[in-house]
Amino acid sequence: MKKEQKKRVIMHFNNLPADIQEEVRKKYPDGFTDYKIKITKPNNDFFFAVPYDTEDISYLVKIDVKIDTVNDEKIDEQLFHNDEVMKADPKIKEEEEEEEEPDDKPEEPDDDDDDDE
Question: How far apart are CA 63 and CA 34, in angstroms?
Answer without folding.
Answer: 13
